[in-house]
Amino acid sequence: MNVIPIRSSSEIRLTVNGRPVTLEVRPEALLLDVLRDRLQLKGARRSCDMQVCGACTVLVDGAPVSACTYLAVEADGREVLTVEGLADGDRLDPLQEAFIEHGAVQCGFCTAGMLLTAKALLAEEPSPSPARVAEYLRGNLCRCTGYRKILDAILACAAPGGGTR
Amino acid sequence: MPRLHVDRLRSGDGSEDEYRVVERTGLAAWDATTALTVVGRPYPRVEGAEKVTGRACYAGDVRLAGLLHARVLRSPLPHARIRRIDTAAAEALPGVHAVLGTHSAPAIRWYPDGLLFDRTLRFVGDEVAAVAAESEETAADALRLVAVEYEPLPFVVGLEAALRPEAPPVREGGNLVGPPKVYARGDAEAALREAPVVIDETYTTQTALHNCLEPHGCTATWDGERLTLWDSTQSVFDVRERVAETLGLPEHRVRVIKHHMGGGFGSKQIAWKHAVIAALLARRAGRPVRLMLDREAENLAAGNRNATRQRVRLGATRDGTLTAISARIEQDTGAYLVGGEGSNTSAIYQTLYRCPNVTTEQVGVYTNTGPAVAFRAPGHVEGAFALESAMDELARALDMDPLALRLRNYAEADQRRGRPYTTPDGLRLCYERAAAEFGWRRDRRPSGQGSRRRGIGMAAHDWGGSGYPPGYAWVKLNGDGSAEVVTGTQDIGTGTRTGLTQIAAEELGLPLERVLLHLGDTATGVYAPVSAGSATQATIGPAVRAAAAEARRQLLEAAATMLEAAPADLQLREGTIRVAGAPDRALDVADVTRRIAPHMIQGHGARGPNPDGKAVRTFGAQCVEVEVDVDTGEVSVLRVVASHECGRIVNPTLVDSQVLGAVTQGVGFALMEERVVDAGGVVLNANLEEYKVPTAPDVPAVVHARVDRPDPEANATGAKGIGEPPLVPTAPAIANAVFDAVGVRIRHTPLSRRRLLAALAAHRPEPA
Amino acid sequence: MRPFAYASPRTADEIIALLTPGSAGADGASRPLAGGTDLLTLMKADVATPSRLVDIKRAGLPKGIEETPPGLVVGGLTTLAQIETHPAVRARYPALAEATAVAATAQLRNVATVAGNLLQRPRCWYFRNPRIACWLKGGDHCPARDGENQLHAILGGGPCHAVHPSDVAPALVALDADARLRGPGGERTVPVEGLFAAPEGGRRRETLVGSDELLLALRLPPADGSRSTYLKSMDRKVWAFALAGVAARLRLDGRRVAEARIVLGGVAPVPWRAHEAERALEGAEAGPAAWDRAANAALTGAAPLRHNAYKLPLARALVRRALESLAT
After folding, report:
1. What global pTM score does this model have?
2. 8 Å CB contact of C107 and A57
3. How many CB atoms lie within 10 A of CB B688?
4. ipTM score above 0.90
5. What is the pLDDT of residues B427-444, one digit of tens each?
6. Cβ-nearest to A51 among C33, C41, C51
7. Could you tell me the sign of the dihedral formed by the alpha carbons of C101, C102, C103, C107, in that order?
8. What is the pLDDT of residue B18?
9. Residue A101 sits in the same domain as residue A70
10. For position B377, what pLDDT does the model report?
């Protein structure tokens, strides 16, 4: 049977890149679609669409999550950071600078997710070891770069004295 | 001034004559002695800031008022005929604006023998219907309301099954794509009969999926009778031609734009159905439409690297001289010929080694699975796995160093056409640099501790990458002394924008930041071919240089009047024009352009011809070290040394990235990537969870032992392609290293844990 | 996703009422939503089609790790990320810390809860594919049995041959953890091992937890001198479900094994307690001979399918390796 029930909506209030946002969303609305189509924040990208590839990674209350499989209603009352919120005005985040400098950007489709995952890692562990960075980034797939320059860029932003974990 | 050469190629068979037009510029090539200041430097990508801020616009990012979302209903059956289709309920659903299906779509030809929406479906994922609606969810709801009655037809999955005499036919006429493509020089059979040492083995390679992070798709909008498509494509001009032709539009009313693309790897080198479907839906709905494939569709219906089965026979004398190479190749074309396979698996057998007796026979086989399309070095990756594994087996049989065996059979000419290479020592240089950097030693013994065994292996390759005419560019000098370069090529993520900008800046004598390059737009750009075959830099680079040279000539003529000197006495560097020998007589480029404004200096440039009588190729060799855990079947690639001859390196960072990325895909192809199709024709891992691609920890330490040597005979920049070649030797080098480590030869990719453990169990004389 | 209703109750009673078939407000097709990493993926694949999701994260249910010396209580809503990094877990229950660390990705571990992890559905590529009818989804037979079964069960398979995908579950079973559940009839406590049963007959699920029950918390008994570990083999270095995993716990008395737990993941429809291996170990002298015996005993009764016999040597190797690492 293919009966299509009416899709109802409810109101959510969240903070996106520091700005309060109030939206009417349906229960099945995904955070990724709300960000991309309602808020015109295109940096988070749909790729695997099953939270395995990391291209849609955003930070919710500081933690990386896959926006493609995260209900918008669940973001009610939370703080969301997307790649558009990384720079401080015209001043790029050091990670963004390092990605450019180290050639960590290739096709660019994974870049936003990589940056945000790295941002969360460095906030949690300011001086991770190279192996730890690679391991932490395992949920961010890249098909172009071979990862090496991405890891180099992140390590360039780590505090000195890389841990052993 | 460029000179136009028009050659008439008489068909002789009654069909229309062809004309080949080549422009010759007379520009002296940059050779090893030319001092360059911008080209050769590791500039960061010119579009880096757009990408790290999320601003970079991909095919699905276009903002348009009233944008609709399209989804495609796909065949649930591997082979079926649509008896009846009813879309009334879908059309009646609020929020649905257009529906297309076999019953309602125009009869647009697609594939050699089908329609855009055909009643016959030949693989799970074949297009049945499409809808455009206010939201993705509504579109999905609508698809569930499309009632289709299918008549299931007998189907066949997999190469071997499709080749059986009793196999159900994928289409009338059977399952062979055509007669075998046969190549022969000398007499391989006779040579094999006489050869003192013969290797005769069969190798298979898997179906691999591109899994570009950005799926195929586009956004389409109409303005009256003008269509604009933002497509995720490697060829804006090919998409324009196909869409215009199928929709009956003149080409100037179709504009195809591609700003940025999230990977293509060959899968986006042709125009796919989605572009035409989106255009039709948008026209029907009277609103713009976005049609991005989902991951499953991407993996079902947007191409794959075809599986192969290759019987390889090598004949050699006791000193390791190859006397015969024979390959019989079967490959799984899938359900349709899409026209962009490029999968010439035979080629590497014909060229990589010097051998007088070579036979290859290649046949494509239809099966009821998604169609194959080019995938980064198509054919060569598959062929190299078999040939380079067989060469390793031959080296073992001869008790010879694999490197020495390769050097003994070194080819300095393209033996298919009897043409010497422009860089006959190119591959030798790669062998030398890779071996030196790696520390390759023939007497090295496998090592290891406990269950972990280490081994080393190597493999080599050749590839095209010459680039070719035609391809064009313009350069404009603005009144303020800044320059714009316009070309119709596209940057598919490789860094084309940056490399071409460097070439323009070099020729114009301007700092990089005073040059901006525009590409990826058929309305504003001049023709450039598909970005494929590792050809973009070597095709468009010389055109950009020629355009810049023409602009430079005009600039210096104007400056000569102002400086009261002869143009030939002027030097142009870093934005300043100086009179030779008179350092105080100088002008900034902007001083010249400002004084002649609003006159605009414009340069036109074309890609010149490739050299007559010579073959332009790229070469490479890789050495790898692996560790195999014989208890768990885990293969760890510890390090890879890659050396590739691609002429001049325009930007070392970009070239390193191609090498690193390609080796990583090679690791995936060698160890984990494999499409799995159930006997019922359903792809079981059409997603990024079950289809494994390498993650960051899977990537070995890669050293790129650069061979940065201009090939001035190749083209005016001396640079050749590097996009594909570094993927070619990785898998066989790994398989050879695995054999070195554990003494077990795996002739089938991928070398998964499962395959390793099964092979080890079969070979191990006693339990550990 | 198909449309659904969404509720976010503030009390456990309200949640349970919404989940209970036939009770007030329930429609029989409500599903609890915790991290959603499994459920939402199933819904996106059109394999699960609940008419309502009941968010259980805003009702004050236990979340986080509470030290209850000498044991530990882990709230059902605790995320895998919280467990992985918790000092007490790392110090005293390394099998659990290691299992959470090798599970999934940062993105998933930040959202996925331990209760959801235990109750997740199989990753079987037939089960998850909406184009295929399989026994677990109400079909007639298991297509994996004679199909592409390289990832499937070698132990305890049939009628469903999918494997339990959790890394955390074998660790918790090996650690003798208990689960506290709450349903319409009140609370009950069962060993974590008792949460699971291979699907059979009319119960086409891998768990004995009722659809109207909430897994409130897990209680870990004192480590008591035990050492534990979790080892996992995957199709790549990281970020894949286990081809085979083993959680092992040993308590040594001098050179003798006083107590042993061997629990396999990725090889059976449930976390597979290898009783015969445990018996082979208990009382034995620690050393390679005992590890080999245990490794062989762990696979007692294994019945590999056409494409998955490789899992036998693989699981044996992991058992041996785990025991070696615990005894040195």
Report:
1. 0.97
2. yes
3. 25
4. yes
5. 999 999 999 999 998 666
6. C41
7. positive
8. 74
9. no
10. 98
CB contact under 8 A, A107 and B693: no
Of B503, B606, B504, B487, the residue nearest B555 (C-alpha): B504
Task: List the domain range (segments joined by +) for residue A125.
Answer: 94-157
**What is the per-residue pLDDT across C116-172, written as a single tens digit (0 to 9) for each?**
999 999 999 999 999 999 999 999 999 999 999 999 999 999 999 999 999 999 999
pLDDT at B2 over 80: no
Which pLDDT tens digit goes with each residue over C25-67?
555 589 999 999 999 999 999 999 999 999 999 999 999 999 9
Residues 50-89 of A with CB under 8 A from B: 50, 52-53, 55, 82-84, 86-87
Give the tokens for residue B387. 């040939």
Residue B768 has pLDDT above 50, yes or no: no
Stretch among A30-44, B205-219, B436-450 having the lowest mean pLDDT: B436-450
Q: Judge whether B235 and B497 are in contact, CB under 8 Å.
A: no
pLDDT class for B674, splitting at 50, 70, 90?
very high
H or E element at residue A149: helix A148-157
Give the CATH number for residue A134.
1.10.150.120
When the candidates are 3.30.365.10, 3.30.1330.40, 3.40.50.150, 3.30.750.24, the CATH number that belongs to B68-153+213-263+268-301 is 3.30.365.10
At B14, is the pLDDT very low, low, confident or very high (cuts 50, 70, 90)? low
B521: left (phi over 0), alpha (psi -120 to 50) or beta: beta
Looking at the DSSP assignment, which residues form a beta bridge with residue C278? none
- B308-466+613-763: CATH topology: Aldehyde Oxidoreductase; domain 4 (3.30.365)
Are B720 and B712 a contacting pair, CB within 8 Å?
Answer: no
Q: Is the pLDDT of residue B45 over 60?
A: yes
Within chain A, what is the greatest distance between any pair of CA atoms?
Answer: 61
Asked if B201 is an active-site residue, the reply is no
Taking phi first (over 0 means left), then psi (-120 to 50 degrees means alpha), and beta for anything else, what does residue C176 get?
left
Preferred mutation among C2, C39, C107 to probe A, highest tally of A CBs within 10 A: C107
Give the number of other Cβ atoms within 10 Å of residue C290's Cβ: 22
Binned at pLDDT 50, 70 and 90, residue C70 comes out as confident
Asked if the C-beta of B76 comes within 8 angstroms of chain C's C-beta atoms, the answer is yes
Question: pLDDT tens digits, residue range A9-36?
Answer: 889 999 999 999 999 999 999 999 999 9
Peptide bond into B750 cis (omega under 30): yes
| Chains with at least 3 CB pairs less than 8 angstroms from chain C | A, B
| Residues 6 or more apart in contact with residue B578 via CB below 8 angstroms | B570, B571, B572, B585, B586
What fold does the segment set B3-56+467-606 form as a domain? Answer: Aldehyde Oxidoreductase; domain 4 (3.30.365)
Please name the amino acid found at residue B504: A
Q: Select which of B341, B550, B625, B724 is catalytic.
A: B724
CB contact under 8 A, A147 and B657: no
CA C288 to each of CA B449, C61, C217, C319, C328: distance values in angstroms, whole numbers, following the listed order: 17, 46, 38, 11, 11
Work out the minimum CA distance from C90 to partner chain A, whole angstroms: 13
What are the start and end residues of each CATH 3.30.365.10 domain in chain B?
Answer: 3-56+467-606, 68-153+213-263+268-301, 308-466+613-763
pLDDT digits (tens, 9 = 90+) for A105-138: 999 999 999 999 999 999 999 999 999 999 999 9
What is the secondary structure of B369-412 as a DSSP string?
SPPP---SSTTHHHHHHHHHHHHHHHHHHHT--HHHHHHHTB--
Residues of chain B contacting C3 with CB distance shorter than 8 Å:
137, 141
Residue B12 — pLDDT band, cuts 50, 70, 90?
Answer: low
Question: A75 and A128 share a domain?
Answer: no
Reply yes or no on whether the pLDDT at A162 is more than 60.
no
Query: Which amino acid does the sequence have at B207?
Result: T
